[in-house]
Specification:
This protein has helices at about 30-50, 55-60, 70-80, 85-115, 120-130, 140-150, 160, 170-180, 185-190, 195-225, 230-235, 245, 260-290. By secondary structure, it is mainly alpha-helical. The model is unreliable at about 290-295 (pLDDT under 50).
């Protein structure tokens, strides 16, 4: 009985390898789940719009309305003029912008120092910074209010900006990012070339940290925009309020609060954030993707 020679032996067929883009193609179930998640996430915003287009009696009477009503523009005009929403919008933009810029800058510098600069007590100091995140902000209200009272800053925007110039979360966030994204050899090479610390930060650290800075800036901006607790104590609706403080004075009548007007004010305060995400969302996601890919 003859056996096939090695030259005539049949080789098993190999399946063609799919293109790289087809290996992770989403299936129908993925799109269904993503669609449901999008609906659940967008429904509160949609109902806020619906409630802002009805009267206060209709909003609180069952069943709750699910379709827009005819009073949207009337409620927008009333809410805008009742508490000077324009001034509150400008104040909130100033506060959130300054807080975001200062937090990103100081957190990047501190994060670079904790990540790549050796100095005595670095671990203990980092532990102390992280430990401050466990302290409830309510504990610092009384001493902080006494400080701004002595400085004469009550009902002024600097009383809200200065206590939030840097955040422990931002320092820890940037430190963790720079540990992985910034090679120490790159810093040492810049020092060998004669670059001083400021030049290293400007030409080496900031370009590498740009994706994390964009994410941190967006998170801090949203947090400062929606902050209510401390601005409500330091500012008043009749002085220089932020949007969240101004919302506290919306819809107040003789004995009741018009919930439709309050929700209209909430809709006004949310629209600028949606605009920011619509304009900068692709850049932030692109920066995250760029920073996540290692060469």
């Amino acid at each position: 009985m003859s056996h096939p020679s090695p030259r005539t032996r049949v080789r098993p067929r190999l399946r063609p390898r799919p293109p790289a883009g087809d290996q992770h193609r989403a299936g129908p179930l993925t799109y269904v789940l993503l669609g449901l998640a999008a609906l659940v996430s967008l429904f509160p915003l949609y109902w806020n719009l619906v409630a802002a287009s009805h009267s206060g009696e209709r909003v609180v009477s069952p069943p709750a309305p699910l379709l827009p009503g005819p009073r949207l523009f009337d409620n927008l005009s009333f809410a805008w003029n009742q508490v000077d929403m324009g001034e509150a919008l400008v104040n909130t933009t100033i506060v959130a912008g300054l807080v975001a810029l200062s937090t990103v800058l100081f957190s990047t510098l501190a994060g670079f120092a904790f990540a790549k600069l050796p100095f005595k007590g670095r671990g203990a100091l980092l532990t102390l910074v992280v430990a401050t995140m466990t302290i409830p902000p309510q504990l610092s209200v009384i001493p902080l209010y006494r400080i701004i009272t002595d400085l004469g800053w009550v009902d002024q925007l600097q009383s809200v900006v200065l206590p939030s110039l840097v955040a422990a979360f931002g320092v820890f966030f940037m430190r963790q990012y720079l540990i992985e994204a910034l090679p120490v050899e790159l810093v040492e090479a810049a020092r060998v070339d004669g670059a001083h610390s400021l030049r290293i930060i400007w030409h080496v650290v900031l370009p590498v940290a740009r994706p994390a800075m964009a994410v941190l800036g967006m998170l801090v901006f949203v947090q400062a925009w929606n902050d209510f607790f401390w601005p409500f104590i330091a500012l008043t609706p009749d002085g220089s309020p932020t949007l969240q403080v101004a919302l506290a004075g919306l819809g107040a009548g003789n004995h009741t609060v018009d919930q439709s007007i309050v929700l209209t004010g909430a809709l006004i305060s949310t629209l600028p954030l949606l605009l920011v995400f619509a304009v900068l969302g692709k850049h932030i996601v692109g920066g995250i993707t760029t920073g996540a890919v290692k060469s």
